[in-house]
Amino acid sequence: MVIYDGNTVTAYPHGSEPVVFDTEEAVKIPTGINVPPTGWYYAELGHFLSCIREGKPSPLVPRERILAVLDLLETALEADGSN
């Protein structure tokens, strides 16, 4: 579960301690949804591109998690008939 209280974003991962994210970013990009304008996606893409340039895996997102997300997306596409 993720909660935004107007100042901070707190994630409550199952079986783990809550994680509080600072929403103050150098770059503010409107999201169009019920989260604050954020540069998180900008920073995430920058991190992704740095990993590609350096030819190194991301220390933030393990390979297994990436593969699990891709598997979920593929399953959703197949269920929708859009494969």
What's the SSE blueprint?
Layout: E1 2-4, E2 8-11, E3 19-22, H1 40-54, H2 63-80
Antiparallel strand pairs: 1-2, 2-3
Features:
globular, single chain, 3 strands, 40% helix, alpha+beta, Gfo/Idh/MocA-like oxidoreductase C-terminal domain-containing protein, 13% strand
Task: Explain how this protein is built.
The chain is of the alpha+beta class and 83 residues long. It has one domain. Helices cover 40% and strands 13% of the residues. It has two helices and three strands. The protein has helices at residues 40-54, 63-80; strands at 2-4, 8-11, 19-22. A three-stranded antiparallel beta sheet has the order 1-2-3, with no helix packed on it. A hairpin with a 7-residue loop joins strand 2 and strand 3.
Summarize the structure.
By secondary structure, the protein is α+β, with helices and mostly antiparallel strands. The protein has helices spanning 40-54, 63-80, and strands at 2-4, 8-11, 19-22.
The total tally of domains equals: 1
SSE topology string = EEEHH
State which percent range the strand residues make up: 5-15%
Helix tally? Answer: 2
Could you tell me how far the N terminus lies from the C terminus, measured between alpha carbons in angstroms? 30 Å
Outline type: globular
**Mean pLDDT rating:** 82
**Estimated structural class:** alpha+beta
Q: What helical percentage do the residues reach? A: 25-40%
**If you compute it from the alpha carbons, what radius of gyration comes out, rounded to the nearest whole angstrom?**
16 Å
Largest sheet: 3 strands, antiparallel
Largest sheet strand order:
1-2-3
In total, the number of strands is 3
Low-confidence stretches: none
Organism: Flavonifractor plautii 1_3_50AFAA
Protein name: Gfo/Idh/MocA-like oxidoreductase C-terminal domain-containing protein
